[in-house]
């Protein structure tokens, strides 16, 4: 089998470097599998939340009483926009080979991501202070904080990763290693987006409707 | 600064020895004795390493190594050390139960509770898991003709996380108490309300470290098998052990996450007052039961599938026959892997779900018997018409077939909810799962050690002592566990430290005798290894193929060179090496050699392990500064490593060529050994293939393996 036949879609690091392609194939495949195992974790947390948000209310508040749909919607927009910005970073990497372009778009991504985390923290603050709804109040709230908190933790580690990558781009330039790491970070970031959409739908929308 | 800020909840009285002073009793003396043994063991190791000057080689050649072979060996060493502890604990429990007829025996109830909790936890997470992981590490890349696993550093990190968990288990012997919640740690008993001490926290963090390590291993091995097979090695040409490794890896990827989630939630309940599994405020322990067994049931297949792989290799090799029903074995493995996720609920038939749900899961459980039965028939039919050599691995295999079937049948009984209601929580269950896991997994791993030892170290194990240990293990197992079926049916409950029914006494006595025999078997195994090391010159088999092996790993010298294969092989069939021998292609020189790039050793993994261990210890004792510092350090190590650019080194083609040509020349020149003489010192590792003795002598040169361009 020639190298080009074994390419995965979207792995075009640079036109014609078979070795980089081969390195990419294994590393990216591995990362997809990692994401899959991470998704299993999220699936388990979703299942827990699904059970707890119905049967774990006890005498605590109900979902509709504590969720702020507007805030969640803004957060969704922030995260989607950040993914969009990351897309531009990857385009800059692939077509312009421009470290500066990548850095600039990463900065935009990072700021949007940080705003997302900030807003979530603010949500938590409001829930605890205004609604008397800390995670200790009921099983439902425990599950809520764990699910969204795990997601927020992922986003935060994505931000740290981004900062490290920014330094690496500046120090090492856009070499193959750095490119591969950026591609994995991109996948990670997009997956968090997907997970958030599920959270927005099942936690916030369903929660407010029911 | 206050004591608490620095040491958290650690106190002088946390040391196990203080118990014996403050409150002298046999139970406490045994606990301190165990603690003393742990401390003395650690001190003795330090002294030995210092006196022999082994610190540097230990660090340079082992701990910092990312070579999958060394990683594999280290896993198995961990497994054997931990087995020594857990099997002694098992014997202690047996002794207690024997002495506790109508009295309290010599152990306190709490001490007994810790014993079955550490025994179960260690046996599953720190004996069985590292054993299979170590074996897969060593053997699988060789079987697929690869130079390495896909992510060598990640592999070393998995090892170090597992080691960190094992160390935490050992520390719990000396500092503080372990959980009394069993290996399953069901809340609310393990919640903060009923279990305020550090015991459950030890369980949580030791198990979490192990399970994160296993997730990473699963990921790594699945990618390795998908991406690193040598040319020609299609999926359906893979050796069966590799197949079972693949299925196990996939199970690991899916099954460890629910465990991680469950331990995290239990930790949040305990540390932060959350309400996942508490009695009040909407907590629900059934969520725990579901999450735990969503991991726990696949876990037993994670353990048994690699052992099935071992049995397939062993039975084919020692019957001198191709495995019967290769394809059906592969499909059976896949079926078992998938079905293993559909039965978890049989672990709590009695906990209140509807009859229909129970019926569904009961039937699903019984269905697993079908592919397993297929496998048993395939193994039997492999032997039919074969030329069987009753060497130690084969003895273990035959013993496995006989006893595993009995265990399987008791499993089908338990899968029937109405039967399960009768024997639930009795020793019947204990008998059943030991009946599966000891002949299946543990003996499978012992057989694997006997089988692959010459590959790993270049010399065979002493056969006589191997058989002697088998003849302790096999009847020891029967004696130790078959009485428990009777006891269970008489109503003896599990995890009980005292009892009053005189009818139990003879059965407990038999079980005790069995445990003693098992201990003797283990001792003989250690003696076997020591004796074999001493006589390694006589037992040497450097030419790599002492058993007339069939798969690629036997085509290379023993011990395996750092680069595994001098030239990546090209295969055209199953049983690639055997086919090459048959066609007269074995031991031919390749056309050309190339430089080989291997990953450099690095301190990254041991440092991560060290900080992970410190982090977990800090969490157990609420030493928050330690938690914060070690967590940051752990990630600092990762980040610093990511700036490292010079991570590989090159072995020049000349060096590879010199070593490999010397091996090939020696192999060609060697006379070869027939199957009758394979246990004699004539066996230098060049087997004369069964039925092909006429092909002995030097073979013509030429390329057996093509160099890839
Ligand atoms: C080799 C000899 C072994 C002996 C003599 C032995 C003996 C025992 C005993 C006496 C118990 C306590 C039963 C009770 O609670 O009443 C026990 C429990 C257990 N054993 Fe073993 N065992 C052995 C090997 C193994 C192995 C190889 C494994 C797994 C790899 C294992 C896993 C367990 C587990 C999971 C439990 C349940 C602990 C709990 O109740 O939480 N054992 N064993
Ligand atoms: Cu099960």
Question: Can you give a write-up of this model?
Answer:
The complex is a heterodimer of chains A (210) and B (709). Chain A has 210 residues and is mainly α. Chain A has one domain: Cytochrome c oxidase, subunit III, four-helix bundle (Four Helix Bundle (Hemerythrin (Met), subunit A)), CATH 1.20.120.80. Chain A contains six helices and no strands. In chain A, α1 runs parallel beside α6, α3 packs antiparallel against α4 (99-130) and α3 (69-96) packs antiparallel against α6. The relative contact order of chain A is 0.17. With 709 residues, chain B is mainly alpha-helical. Chain B has two domains: 63-602 and 647-654, Cytochrome c oxidase-like, subunit I domain (Cytochrome C Oxidase, Chain A); 603-646. In chain B, 65% of the residues lie in helices and 1% in strands. Chain B has 22 helices and two strands. Chain B has helices spanning 3-7, 16-22, 26-52, 55-63, 68-99, 109-143, 152-174, 199-227, 240-272, 285-318, 326-339, 355-383, 392-414, 417-423, 427-457, 463-489, 505-534, 536-539, 576-582, 604-621, 624-642, 653-669; strands at 596-599, 648-651. A two-stranded antiparallel sheet of chain B has the order 1-2. In chain B, α6 (109-143) crosses α10, α8 packs antiparallel against α20 (604-621) and α12 (355-383) packs antiparallel against α13 (392-414). Chain B is globular, with a radius of gyration of 26 Å. Chain B starts with a helix and ends in a 40-residue tail after the last helix. Chains A and B meet through α1 and α5 of A and α8, α9, α10 and α21 of B. The complex binds protoporphyrin IX containing FE (HEM) and copper (II) ion (CU). Protoporphyrin IX containing FE (HEM) binds at residues 87, 90, 93-94, 116-117, 119-120, 123-124, 127-128, 182-184, 430, 434, 437-438, 442, 480, 494-495, 515, 518 of chain B.
């Amino acid at each position: 089998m020639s190298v080009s036949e074994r390419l995965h879609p979207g792995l075009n690091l640079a036109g014609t470097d078979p070795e980089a392609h081969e390195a990419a194939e294994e590393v990216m495949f591995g990362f997809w599998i990692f994401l899959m195992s991470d998704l299993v974790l999220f699936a388990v947390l979703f299942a827990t939340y699904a059970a707890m948000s119905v049967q774990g209310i006890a005498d605590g508040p109900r979902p509709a009483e504590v969720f702020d749909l507007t805030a969640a919607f803004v957060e969704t927009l922030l995260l989607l926009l950040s993914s969009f910005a990351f897309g531009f970073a990857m385009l800059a990497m692939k077509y312009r080979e421009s470290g500066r372009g990548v850095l600039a778009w990463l900065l935009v991504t990072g700021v949007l991501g940080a705003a997302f985390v900030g807003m979530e923290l603010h949500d938590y603050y409001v829930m605890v202070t205004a609604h008397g709804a800390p995670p200790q109040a009921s099983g439902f709230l425990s599950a809520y904080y764990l699910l969204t908190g795990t997601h927020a933790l992922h986003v935060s580690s994505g931000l740290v990763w981004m900062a490290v990558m920014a330094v690496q781009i500046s120090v090492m330039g856009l070499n193959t290693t750095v490119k591969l790491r950026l591609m994995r970070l991109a996948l990670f970031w997009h997956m968090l987006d997907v997970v958030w959409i599920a959270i927005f739908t099942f936690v916030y929308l369903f929660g407010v409707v029911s | 600064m206050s004591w608490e800020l620095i040491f958290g909840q650690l106190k002088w009285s946390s040391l196990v020895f203080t118990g014996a002073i403050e409150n002298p009793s046999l139970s406490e003396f045994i606990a301190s004795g165990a603690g003393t043994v742990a401390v003395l063991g650690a001190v003795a190791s330090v002294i030995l390493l210092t006196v022999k000057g082994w610190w540097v080689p230990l660090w340079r050649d082992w701990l910092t190594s990312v070579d999958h072979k060394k990683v594999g060996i280290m896993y198995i060493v961990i497994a054997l050390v931990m087995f020594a502890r857990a099997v002694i604990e098992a014997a202690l429990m047996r002794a207690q139960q024997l002495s506790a007829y109508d009295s309290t025996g010599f152990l306190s109830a709490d001490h007994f509770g810790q014993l079955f909790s550490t025994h179960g936890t260690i046996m599953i997470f720190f004996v069985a898991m590292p054993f299979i992981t170590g074996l897969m590490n060593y053997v699988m890349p060789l079987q697929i003709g690869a130079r390495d696993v896909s992510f060598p550093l990640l592999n070393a990190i998995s090892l170090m996380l597992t080691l960190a968990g094992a160390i935490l288990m050992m520390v719990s012997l000396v500092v503080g108490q372990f959980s009394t919640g069993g290996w399953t740690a069901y809340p609310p008993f393990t919640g903060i309300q009923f279990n305020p001490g550090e015991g459950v926290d030890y369980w949580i963090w030791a198990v979490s470290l192990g399970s994160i390590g296993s997730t990473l291993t699963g990921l790594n091995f699945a990618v390795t098998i998908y991406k690193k097979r040598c040319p020609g090695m299609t999926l359906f040409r893979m050796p069966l052990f590799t197949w079972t490794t693949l299925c196990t890896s996939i199970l690991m990827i899916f099954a460890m996450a629910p465990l991680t989630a469950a331990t995290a939630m239990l930790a949040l309940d305990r540390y932060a007052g959350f309400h996942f599994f508490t009695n009040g405020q909407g907590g629900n322990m059934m969520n725990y039961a579901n999450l735990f067994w969503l991991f726990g049931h696949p876990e037993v297949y994670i353990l048994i599938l690699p052992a099935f792989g071992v049995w397939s290799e062993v039975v084919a090799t020692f019957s001198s026959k191709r495995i019967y029903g290769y394809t059906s074995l592969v499909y059976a493995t896949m079926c078992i892997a998938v079905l293993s996720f559909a039965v978890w609920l049989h672990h709590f038939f009695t906990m209140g779900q509807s009859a229909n749900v129970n019926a569904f899961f009961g039937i699903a459980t019984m269905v697993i018997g079908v592919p397993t039965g297929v496998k048993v028939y395939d193994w039997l039919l492999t032997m039919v018409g074969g030329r069987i050599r009753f060497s130690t691995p084969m003895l273990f295999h035959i013993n496995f077939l006989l006893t595993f079937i009995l265990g399987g049948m008791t499993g089908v009984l338990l899968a029937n909810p109405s039967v399960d209601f009768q024997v639930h929580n009795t020793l019947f269950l204990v008998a059943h799962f030991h009946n599966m896991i000891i002949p299946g997994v543990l003996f499978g791993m012992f057989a694997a050690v006997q089988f692959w030892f010459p590959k790993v170290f270049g010399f065979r194990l002493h056969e006589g002592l191997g058989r002697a240990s088998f003849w302790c293990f096999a009847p020891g197992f029967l004696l130790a566990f078959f009485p428990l079926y009777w006891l269970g049916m008489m109503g003896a409950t599990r995890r009980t430290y005292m009892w009053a029914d005189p009818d139990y006494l003879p059965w407990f006595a038999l079980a005790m005798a069995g445990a003693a025999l098992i201990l003797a078997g283990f001792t003989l195994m250690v003696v076997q290894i020591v004796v074999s090391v001493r006589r390694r010159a006589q037992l040497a088999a450097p030419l790599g193929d002492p058993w007339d092996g069939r798969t690629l790993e036997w085509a290379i010298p023993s011990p395996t060179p750092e680069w595994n294969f001098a030239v990546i092989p090209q295969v055209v069939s199953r049983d690639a090496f055997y086919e090459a021998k048959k066609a007269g292609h074995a031991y031919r020189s390749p056309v050309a050699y190339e430089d080989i790039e291997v990953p450099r050793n690095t301190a990254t993994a041991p440092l991560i392990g060290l900080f992970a261990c410190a982090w977990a210890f800090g969490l157990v004792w609420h030493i928050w500064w330690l938690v914060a510092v070690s967590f940051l350090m752990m990630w600092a190590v990762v980040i610093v490593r990511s700036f490292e650019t010079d991570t590989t080194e090159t072995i020049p083609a000349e060096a590879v060529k010199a070593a490999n040509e010397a091996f090939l020349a020696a192999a060609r020149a060697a006379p070869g050994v027939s199957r009758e003489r394979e246990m004699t010192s004539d066996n230098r590792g060049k087997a004369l293939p069964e039925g092909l003795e006429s092909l002995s002598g030097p073979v013509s040169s030429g390329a057996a393996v093509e160099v890839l361009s």
